[in-house]
């Protein structure tokens, strides 16, 4: 059970993330977060030393939540097939369905939000942001490598580049969905990537 202090910290993180995804890191002030969280300035600085410290904890939470989300989808895919390529294709189908079933347009990505404010972030937050992106590459590369070892690619492509392409599809799909206010663009782009993999591996 979370303590009162942990609950307050989690509340601040959730509110700060929501505001920053809407207004960006640069456009969000600590005073705005304090007002929306209904806490005192002292209450905020009890949990976070600075705006960069808040950003660090936001990225750590984002990284943790992403890991749980992706791993949950992969676990489900693993239950449905023993073939590594089919597991990857099922994962992409599940990911597209999850994005299509969001209550609204995807709220955005902290990686893109922080990258756009790179000059205001300290080196620790910049590294965490890069590490989160590299985690995606490692996770997707591991799955794609397993698929390639059992089902060789019909058109040779470096696995890390295919992994980065999926990250680009997700990030780009989020931006397009938000820009055009069309919730279905993100899942459609994920399914387009899925079809691309099917062509590369030569599966029906």
Describe it.
With 204 residues, the chain is mainly α. 76% of the residues lie in helices and 0% in strands. The protein has nine helices and no strands. It has helices at 4-23, 30-37, 41-47, 51-80, 84-100, 110-115, 123-150, 159-180, 185-201. Helix 1 packs across helix 4, helix 4 runs parallel beside helix 7 (123-150) and helix 8 packs antiparallel against helix 9 (185-201). It starts with a helix and ends with a helix. The mean pLDDT is 94.
Short description:
The protein is mostly helical. It has helices at residues 4-23, 30-37, 41-47, 51-80, 84-100, 110-115, 123-150, 159-180, 185-201.
- The total count of strands amounts to 0
Shape: elongated
SSE string, helices as H and strands as E: HHHHHHHHH
Cα gyration radius (Å)? 19 Å
Low-confidence stretches: none
Strand content: under 5%
Largest sheet: none
| Average pLDDT number | 94
Q: In angstroms, what separates the terminal alpha carbons?
A: 48 Å
Assembly state: single chain
Structure classification: mainly alpha
So how many helices?
Answer: 9
Q: In percent, how helical is the residue content?
A: over 70%
Keywords:
204 residues, mainly alpha, 76% helix, elongated
Topology diagram in text:
Layout (H helix, E strand, L loop, with lengths): L3 H20 L6 H8 L3 H7 L3 H30 L3 H17 L9 H6 L7 H28 L8 H22 L4 H17 L3
Helix pairs in contact: 1-2, 1-4, 4-5, 4-7, 5-7, 5-9, 7-8, 8-9
């Amino acid at each position: 059970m979370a303590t009162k202090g942990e609950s307050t910290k989690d509340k601040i993180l959730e509110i700060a993330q929501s505001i920053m995804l809407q207004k960006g890191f640069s456009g969000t002030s600590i005073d705005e977060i304090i007002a929306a969280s209904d806490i005192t300035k002292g209450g905020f600085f009890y949990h976070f030393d600075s705006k960069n410290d808040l950003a660090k904890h936001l990225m750590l939470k984002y990284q943790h939540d992403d890991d749980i989300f992706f791993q949950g989808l992969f676990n489900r895919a693993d239950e449905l097939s023993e073939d590594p390529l089919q597991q990857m294709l099922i994962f992409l189908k599940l990911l597209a369905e999850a994005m299509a079933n969001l209550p609204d347009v995807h709220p955005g990505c902290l990686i893109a939000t922080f990258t756009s404010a790179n000059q205001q972030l300290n080196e620790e937050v910049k590294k965490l942001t890069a590490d989160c992106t590299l985690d995606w590459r490692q996770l997707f590369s591991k799955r794609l490598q397993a698929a390639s070892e059992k089902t060789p690619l019909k058109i040779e492509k470096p696995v890390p580049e295919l992994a980065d392409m999926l990250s680009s599809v997700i990030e780009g799909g989020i931006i397009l969905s938000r820009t055009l206010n069309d919730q279905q663009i993100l899942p459609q782009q994920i399914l387009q990537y899925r079809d691309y993999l099917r062509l590369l591996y030569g599966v029906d």
